[in-house]
Amino acid sequence: MEDSCRKISRPQGEHEIYCCGALVRISEKGIEVLSEPLVEYCPLHEAFYGTKKIDVGAVRKSVEMKVAGFGFCCGSRAFDAEPIVAYGASEMMRIWLEKRLIDCAVVVCEGAGTVVTANGELVQSIGARLTGIVRTSPIRETIERIEANNGVVLDKACARIDQAEGVKQAFDLGFKRVAVSIAGFRSEAISEIREFESSAKANVLVFSVCNTCVGNADVEHIAKADVACASASRILRNEIGKKALLQLGVSIPVYALTEKGKRLVLAYLGEFDDKLVIFRTSRLPYLAENIGPKLKGYSNNQKP
Q1: Are 213 and 184 in contact (CB under 8 A)?
Q2: Which residues pair with 180 in a beta bridge?
Q3: Is the C or the N end of the chain the one with fewer CB within 10 Å?
Q4: What is the pLDDT tens value at each position of the chain, 304 positions in all?
Q5: CA 250 to CA 85: how far, in whole Å?
Q6: Are residues 90 and 130 in contact, defined by beta-carbon separation less than 8 angstroms?
């Protein structure tokens, strides 16, 4: 889907994201890290950006690299459908769409907000290098690219992020089997979707993502998801992990919480190219010492 030649430009509009638990503002004025990162070390961050220790400077540098290298928050944004991580939401949703296990996906893209699409390549192109989008501004080129690839933008004028409304729009478009990604800091949307799902006579798979910053109040909502990524959250590992039927990965685990989630995760693994180890256990989560993200103030094997 990506152009062979792409001009890198400056960010357009104003956007706020979470990166390693730090709130970051990206605008035409530059990149501002508005809060201290919650994460001291992350294996994914090291793999992508070479960071051994995460601080404000490391967060700013990683966002600068995304802007310069991939046009993040720019009109020249990259739309590259190559898989980036093993158990990412966009990677899984793409396979589910291609195998016709779901009808469409509701995702978030900076520069567009909530997006509804049945195009698996577009889902991966949007989510490949995405991190938690708190708010965003419309970018004309990004919206046009999404629409040209069979995506529907919920609010082109404001680039509003509202995943519950995105699911309702998917229903209005005639889709009945919908997968939606919901960031942990918007966890209430999970409960909202569950409230209207049955009356719509539809089937929604909720994938909870970007959970580093979640608090105890979010647990009751995230527990209603079908699949949840633990991110760097101790709360997710301790409270949601024990409800899991299946766990993918150890360093940054992904939990299938329902039979529906388990079934679709296993379908994804059927298309997975790398070698796997699968074993039975009497309890989850499966945790290993000194593996995975390290929160500030905690060792890798220390409970909060």
Answers
A1: yes
A2: 106, 206
A3: C
A4: 555 444 556 899 999 999 999 999 999 999 999 999 999 999 989 988 888 899 999 999 999 999 999 999 999 999 999 999 999 999 999 999 999 999 999 999 999 999 999 999 999 999 998 989 999 999 999 999 999 999 999 999 999 999 999 999 999 999 999 999 999 999 999 999 999 998 888 899 999 999 999 999 999 999 999 999 999 999 999 999 999 999 999 999 999 999 999 999 999 999 988 899 999 999 999 998 888 999 987 544 333 3
A5: 14
A6: yes
Cis peptide before 293 (omega within 30 of 0): no
The residues, any chain, with a CB within 8 Å of residue 195's CB and separated by 6 or more, are none
Other CB atoms within a 10 A radius of the CB of residue 100 amount to: 9
